[in-house]
Amino acid sequence: MTSFIYNPALIRQKQMEIEFLSFFHGHGFDIIDLPVVESFDWHGMTEDDLRLMPQRETWIQDGTVHALRHDWTNSIVRYLNKYKIDAERAVYSGPVFHSGNETKQLGMEVFSDRTPEQQESLGLLIGFMDDRFGGLPKTAVISHYALLPTILGERILEPAIRRALSQRSESALKQLLGDHPLPALLGDRPEAQVHKLRSEFPEIGPVLEELTGWEETLRQSGIEAVYPDITALPSQSYYDGVFIRLYGEGRTAPVASGGQYTARKKAFGMGIFY
Asked: Where do the domains of the chain lie?
């Protein structure tokens, strides 16, 4: 005989999803859903698709590659490129699967290049976390994907340099870049890094000003510890603007992350992992 056990944690999870969807729907976001199983045509795969395949749970049936959803933004970008979402702002909830592990995700997307509208949505998400998750995230790490291409030029494409950046290895970067100022910057405090960037690379001023605006949004939302990261590399080719990670107290993994990307037009999205 099969028995069913009452699971309060599962009830709370479902209630959280309903509250999140209802909260953002009340602020003008359309609720969307996409299949958890995605289908790929081998001949139509992009470089992003191929790069992510080792991290996906995949199988082949009738000559078609199927995979469990790896990332909501990736799924939305793929959907936008194939079809059309009429929504200007969207909210979602559902699982994602990374290298055999399932994670629950709540998220929102703004399909607009208007920065104030994007920043307003970020404030809404942080406010929801403060109200429903028992407090604000304590720390934010912020970057911009135009920083490294401006600092390094075409050398940003070199695999050895990208590997050293992902490992934050000053010694490896010094060996690869010689007397370039970037390796020395990594040893400085974040505030000093930004000051030196302005001095060493005057052309980067507009990007740093853009970051300052997002930093102000985070501080106005109650997050006082905001740190720049000049080594951020996009995980997907469509990420091309500001990138933000939010951390809880004592947490080494982000509780939420996201940023600006291009999918037919500029957009912004953030996801909460819970």
From this structure: 8-273
